[in-house]
């Protein structure tokens, strides 16, 4: 099948694909993913390296005022809303979930600042659940490759779930991210050197027009 050929090649290209965010516990991952909205993983890792030295649990995070937390996370952007969400989520984790990050998607989505994408990332990465988190890379690459034909992340997620075997959802998420970062860029994708170009509807329709030429 067309989809299986694409997945097989993505797996060959990125056999060691894994999350770029650095974390040690589900709580640390949750905070890192909240901070990663509209921010690079590299920047988040620099921020959490300092933040998590003393504030890496819900209880220790709540020792900070919002203003104090904002000073830690300022460089991640949208720091006011992110700080408010982190403190609210930390409070709910303590008061509603006994201090443990909920391991199901509905519980995760009940936390402040946690939408479908963040819940899917934490559910899949921290708890081994089957989920596909659709970020900008996954949305772009999957629609270019024809694994999805959708105009929203929500529709893309549903179509990917139908196109990809459930046991590969989480790994495929990372494969698509890696391909988006390394080859299938938003601007000037490297179609000329892409080993998936022969299977790619985007390349077939544009013949690499606007792509990077080496």
Quote the average pLDDT.
94
Query: What is the N-to-C succession of helices and strands?
Result: HHHHHHHHHHHH
Structural category: mainly alpha
**Number of helical regions:** 12
Specify the helix fraction band: 55-70%
Computed Rg: 18 Å
Count every beta strand, where a strand is a DSSP E run of 2 or more residues: 0
> What profile does the largest beta sheet have?
none
Unreliable sequence segments: none
Strand content: under 5%
Overall shape: it is elongated
Instruction: State the separation between the terminal residues, measured CA to CA.
Output: 31 Å
Structure description:
The protein is an all-alpha fold. Helix content is 57%, strand content 0%. The chain is built from 12 helices and no strands. Helix 1 crosses helix 11, helix 2 packs antiparallel against helix 8 and helix 9 crosses helix 11. The radius of gyration is 18 Å and the shape is elongated. The two termini are 31 Å apart. The model has no long low-confidence stretch (mean pLDDT 94).
Short description:
With 214 residues, the chain is mostly helical. It contains 12 helices and no strands.
Which structural traits does this protein have?
single chain; 214 residues; mainly alpha; 12 helices; 0% strand
